[in-house]
Design a protein that fits this description.
The complex is a heterodimer of chains A (352) and B (297). Chain A is α+β, with helices and mostly antiparallel strands. Chain A has helices at 42-50, 92-102, 107-121, 136-149, 166-183, 194-200, 218-223, 228-233; strands at residues 4-13, 16-26, 31-35, 57-62, 65-66, 77-80, 154-158, 186-191, 203-208, 211-216, 240-247, 250-253, 258-260, 272-277, 282-298, 303-309, 312-318, 329-334, 339-343. In chain A, the strands form 4 sheets. Chain A has a 6-stranded mixed beta sheet, sandwiched between helices. In chain A, strands 13-12-11-14-19 form a 5-stranded antiparallel beta sheet. In chain A, strands 2-1-4-5 form a 4-stranded antiparallel beta sheet, covered by helices on one side. The longest helix of chain A has 18 residues, at 166-183. Chain A starts with a strand and ends in a 9-residue tail after the last strand. Chain B is mainly alpha-helical. Chain B is 75% helix and 1% strand. Chain B has 15 helices and 2 strands. Chain B has a two-stranded antiparallel sheet. Chain B is globular. Classes of the chains: A alpha+beta (352), B mainly alpha (297).
Chain lengths: 352, 297
Amino acid sequence: MASVDIIDAGKFFGALRIIKGVNIPISDGEFVILVGPSGCGKSTLLRMIAGLEEISEGEIRIGSRVVNEVPPKERDIAMVFQNYALYPHMTVADNMAFSLKLKQASKSEITAKVDRAAKILGLGPLLERYPRQLSGGQRQRVAMGRAIVRDPQVFLFDEPLSNLDAKLRVQMRTEIKELHQRLKTTTIYVTHDQIEAMTMADRIVVMHDGIVEQMGAPLDLYDRPANLFVAGFIGSPAMNMLKGTIRGSSFETENGNRLPLAAAPAASEGRRAIYGMRPENIHLAGDGIPAEVVVVEPTGAETQVVVKAGGDELICVLRERISAKPGETIRITPDLRLIHLFDAEDGRRLTA
Amino acid sequence: MTDAVQQASTAPARTGAISWRSTPNRVVTIYLPLACFVFVLLFPFYWMTITALKPNQELYNYKDYNPFFVHSPTLTNVRKLLFETDYPQWLMTTMMIAVAATVLSIFAAVLAAYAIQRLRFRGAQWVGLAIYLAYLVPPSILFIPLATVVFKLGLYDSPFALILTYPTFLVPFCTWLLIGYFKSIPYELEECAMIDGATRLQILRKITLPLAVPGLISAGIFAFTLSWNEFIYALAFIQSSEKKTVPVAVLTQLVQGDDYQWGSLMAGALFGSIPVALFYSFFVDYYVSSLTGAVKE
């Protein structure tokens, strides 16, 4: 196991700068998830750590060793690819043993390690099968088995669950997390799915356009997004965001609604800002703002309601079951303690 | 061919809504085209066989003898070919040259195709294009300068003249075929092997080549057939009768002046095509099955 330090790392493809000076310290044994929309550079960054892409600038350390010039096979990492990249002409056992055979490990050592990995992942009965005879989830497990067998310093996962169906994805999510708790190997995991990131990570790194927008524990990111991008990216359904102006202890939206503020940031009277509230932080209240119901979507546990207040469209997630029908008016109010204010110009968070 | 048609008409009519399953439709859509195909492919062989077995008076007399049948079959032509000429020797020479040229070309083509497709060095695309252009130069132009090279190297009238010149058209051809095949093998497999600790050569040997077997086989079949049937270089670079390859020898040794010994000629052509046919039929099964089930993950 080892720490990984990404220091001012950058990547050029021709003249295009894909990664723009990224700094991410990852401590030993941590489970870090790089998350962001497609094209944000997260996969490229992972491939730079793996040694599959050159590091154009800055450096990457694994443990205390700078690995910029170290070829992939000497970095002591294992990677799980999105399409699993199982060798189609080898059985499951051979797939897992491949790296050990290259290292010229003894037969008994290979058998012991493959058996151990197979046991951890429940692959015992499948060892003699070929990849084409396996289901998606089983292939995923073999790909992880191949990584475990090597007992590397760092596990790298590149969107490993995106080829699985929704149910299996949830199950594998748990398995990967359990695996990490068991092996305690430093893990770097790339995904575009913020739910995966929230549920699995010790720490999330939100990337966008080749830069790190914010790093932190999942709930910190959720509760205190550093900017508009993170606020919009983390959380589903996404945070409601309204443009407007701060007026004393309330916020006036462009469409004329007045929303309450717990405490206006200092010297902010008349400042243009963006008011953010998460759908689940909006409640029904007798003295709230009147809003017309547009769509009601019950999911069972909760009800998603799309409402229109003046010209502002909001999504609310209500715990209580409501009987309102589209066209009727309900009164809503945001939870004062859980309001986010962002600068209208640069999108930075204003509230402390 | 008549078999096929008969089978179609006696096949039980299938009940079902889909009309193309009915017998008349199957005859038109499947068996008739198939029969045409079989006829076109097999008729030359039939013609060669009966010509080889005909005595001379039958060959030229279509009035008294139906040209499509043999009335009094004889093995004279075959005996003449096998025992009065160097035919067995020509077969061996051709086989040896074709195998050697194929092996040499596939080896070179694998390395070239892998480098162009996977190493992506600067200018790889242009090298690929240049190799393709080299293939387009017709042998009828190329054999003149090649003859000079062959003479200077002292290879004239030796099998090496052919073993070393056939790759001039085999390597470009096989390289192009293999570039396409390597492209179909997911690159992640190689990246994964790289992380697993394999060197480039280990990746080529343990991952890429096993997965490219269908491609290698089809390249091998084409290369073998092309060398087996090659004519102009074999005609230009080999002089001694006993060192000639089958296509050239059959023509130069069995056509004396304007005396065409049709029977022996056809027997020679027939025996000459048997190794190629065997080669095809032996590998085609493997080729097809591996093509449909290889690089799927």
